Amino acid sequence: MRLFDRTALRHLLACIPLVLASCAAEGSGDTGDGDGGEEDCTDGKCDDPGATADRECKEKCGGSTSNACFTECRDAAALDHCEARKSDAIDSAQKAFTPNNIRWACADVEGVNTNGRDDRGQEYCEYYAVVQPPPPAAGGALPDPVDLGRNKSSGSPTPLSLTLNEDQIFALEDEPDAIAGQCIFTSWHQDIELRYPVCGDSNVTCPKLTLADSAKLPSWQPSREYTKIPLTDEWMRMKVSINSNNAAADLFEKGLTDPPAGDAAKPDDPLHDDYIRGCWKAYKLFKTEWRRSDPSVCAVGVRLAECGCGVDTNGDGTADITDPVEISRGVVPFQPDQDGTLRLRGFHLGTWSDMNQLPSGCRYLETGDTDSTKTLVACDLTASDVLSSQQDPKQKCREKYGDNVVVHVPVPAGAIVCTPPADGQYAATCSSMPWVVGGAPSGS
Amino acid sequence: MARLAIALLLVTQAGGCLADEPGEPDCLLDQCESAQSRDEVLDAIDGNGDAIAQFLREAVTERGTLVGDYRDVLDGIGVALGCAPETERSFVVLSNTGFIPTTVFARCADDPQLASRFFLAIPAVRESGEDTDVDPQVLHLSGWDEEAGTFRIYSTRPTEDGEMGVNVSPSFCLGCHGGPHQLSYWQPLMNEMTNPWSGWNAEPGFRSQLFDEFLDQRIAEGAVYQDITAEDLLDSASNLEPIIRAGIDRLNGARVLARERAAEAERALALLQPLYCDESVNFVSEIHGGGQIRASSVLDPTLASHMRAAGIDGEWPWMSGDDLRLADAPSQWEALTLVPVRGESTLAVEVSLVARQVLDPMRALRVRALDWTRPVLSEFRCNLFRDGANRIRGGAIDDEIAALPEGTATADLVPIAYDEIMKLDTAVGLIALEASADDELVAIPDVTEPDVQSRLTEGDLSALAISPAELGDRLQSYLEAIDRDDLWVMRQIRACRVAHEYAIAPIYPDLDCD
């Protein structure tokens, strides 16, 4: 067995993020807004499944959110959300739990939409579209590329729709498989301020977003480089406050504490299900049970807690880190590290079949990071894609690629040791890898 | 038994059509025909600009044959495509002919745009002594001809001399790929284009639904099958899907370009037919019994697109979600599988017409609002088109056509043809299927309802006119009320139609259409 000293383990664990990160939302349906702060969604401005459930239950219960009617209604909705998420995570073909990773798609769940405001980007992965429109008139000046649905440091996201005139439509149509745009997927944590190493000492020297060498360039685009789109934090870092390192660590800590339990006297209590307990934890903490990430992350935390798991730093088979705070900061350490090294810019992006691969049409963008190297992905939008999605190219990104750009939270399987408590209600079902909720599939 | 019944639903080929069972094939149309000389092949491919034609010009023998098998063909065409062998991937589906595995190959598979220029399918099996294996010499091929804006198709069959006979532009392929409306061109097909791709190998990354259980192990152990599904070749259906979509986009783009050609009634009708008649169908399945299934099983997906294009945003959830959530199936084996939905290639034409401003979105919405609880296989909508097309062919808009300025394109004729199609023959004569108020449309959930029938017969549309916003509300209510039993009934009804009308229909052994 490998031996780890605590310093080395911190380095190791920094690459293994965090389970509960996504549970660390600040409140019901809180997505943060363009200015990076939290926003109260109780007025119904946010439209996600949690806020929708709140609104509907409030209406059903006489306008109150503090009576038993509301609680019962909202609990029932939460259970429905949890069943849906369990279906995604365990029953579907895209397993959320593997021996070495927790995974979820970057694409938001249904119900996260643009009603009221654009709430997309809930899953520790934000995305937007960039389109290089043709000149408005044949032979005319090339307009700047347009970013659509990008969260900004301040203010609302950039507009969603593209306006094309007839000449531009014809130009796109004449070259349907030319690459006219990009979908950007980023997992760079909102509170990590260090710029990409490829930028050197200044944002001014950041490289620009560039098409792949193999991309078929449209005739109206003289260069592969989008000169107005640098790889700066403004363009490439996540902006929603819950998508942050601190939120992740906070949630991890909370997820490891006081796992919920079903009623032992009721065999059909849904909380007897391992996944549902984790999802319920997410609900009780922050009412974010409707997301992909939070319930999965919490499910792992709950199982680790129930099964008496901790981290073995010296390979003697005994957990010597068991405190939730220590574990949480061991897994999601403050960044940069004590030696100034950034080891966790964000969660790893890959695809279902391989955490170091991407779906067809996508590629990693070089950031210069030596750890946490796969946090920025660009995927091709053809002229045909742009033509068919003018009202909302960001939605095209979600539909075409979002399900298969997969956030990976590596689990340090080799360093976790578990000693289920003898009297633990769910200890009997603690397998050798209790974090693989629903059983261990093959693969990563 | 239920498990077997449900499991027997599989799918059809993507790049080819008509899997061959072992033994003497029942030759459909020209399925077993081959050219008899090199000159015959060269004459047949004269003017073809696709990579397969390029390969044939180099490789076809004096006898009109090819030497070798699929490997030689793939390698040769790969050179013509500029796609190296290591970019090759294979995808396997269990066909609707005795679950024979059909393997589809792509080159430059990591780039869906490049890959969509060429497909090769190996659809047949053969018996060799005690063994049954994939036949490496029965090939179905399609290659994109950029200049012509179409896919060129070819097939090969083994000759007595052990070579492969070549058939250029085989008509038998259009039985599947041209659909029941007899399109004259080949279009890429992938029956299920969404997770879980029932009947396809979806590994790695996705757990296959039924594939492993129904793949014939005798075939699976065959040497050729092992070769074509080797670890470094075999890929998931999830990665074929974007390639097929790129192929559909490619073809759709060429098709819609016809609007720029000189105004001609038949061209306009060819562009409008997809709005009304289902030239193609696809199938969606519930994911592993977990209650999640595509919303296109219930609502036409273009409704959302047209509403957005028309600037109508009622903030309905149905406009922004792809999936419908039902209660979980009692077991995985009772999942809703292969529910027919509107074909991707068909609705792509409609979306393109609106995106290219040939039809304004309200016009498209007016069609979608008719019989809207039937997103696919609406006889009312298709008959509306047929009747209108007949009137047009009989001269109904000849005066309007004659009045068009010289040089008018088909795009300008499309709205005129549309207006003629959107007329209903009633007791009071031919009436326009439109609301009296400009900001309303005639919306009919179910055209078979007796009350609706009588109104349509009498030509009384007033009670059927609503605003698009109200339509949106009704769609939302409808979607919220749908349950598993409702969808099961829809599936059965549609499946019975598809089984009779579409050659690509999967096997539905649990279907009772009587």
Average predicted confidence as pLDDT of chain B: 88
The multimeric state of the shown protein is: heterodimer
Helix content of chain B: 25-40%
Categorize the overall geometry of chain A. Answer: globular
Instruction: Write out the strand line-up for the largest beta sheet of chain B, numbering strands in chain order.
Output: 1-9-8-7-4-3-2
Low-confidence stretches of chain A: 1-45
Query: Could you tell me which chain pair has the largest interface and how many residues each side has?
Result: A-B, 49 and 54 residues
Name its key features:
heterodimer, A: five-stranded antiparallel sheet, 11 helices, 12 strands, disordered N terminus, B: 514 residues, alpha+beta, seven-stranded antiparallel sheet, two-stranded antiparallel ribbon, 20 helices, 14% strand
Structure explained in plain terms:
The complex is a heterodimer of chains A (444) and B (514). Chain A is α+β, with helices and mostly antiparallel strands and 444 residues long. Helices cover 27% and strands 12% of the residues of chain A. Chain A has eleven helices and twelve strands. In chain A, the strands form four sheets. A five-stranded antiparallel beta sheet of chain A has the order 3-2-4-10-9. In chain A, helix 7 (274-286) crosses helix 8. The two termini of chain A are 20 Å apart. The relative contact order of chain A is 0.21. The model of chain A is unreliable at 1-45 (pLDDT under 50). In chain B, strand 2 (89-94) and strand 3 form a beta hairpin. The relative contact order of chain B is 0.12. Chain B contains 20 helices and 17 strands. A seven-stranded antiparallel beta sheet of chain B has the order 1-9-8-7-4-3-2, with helices on both faces. In chain B, strands 5-6 form a two-stranded antiparallel ribbon. In chain B, helix 10 (237-256) packs across helix 13 (344-355) and helix 11 (265-276) crosses helix 17 (410-421). The model of chain B is unreliable at 1-18 (pLDDT under 50). Chain B has 514 residues and is of the alpha+beta class. The chains are: A alpha+beta (444), B alpha+beta (514). The interface between A and B is large, with 49 and 54 residues.
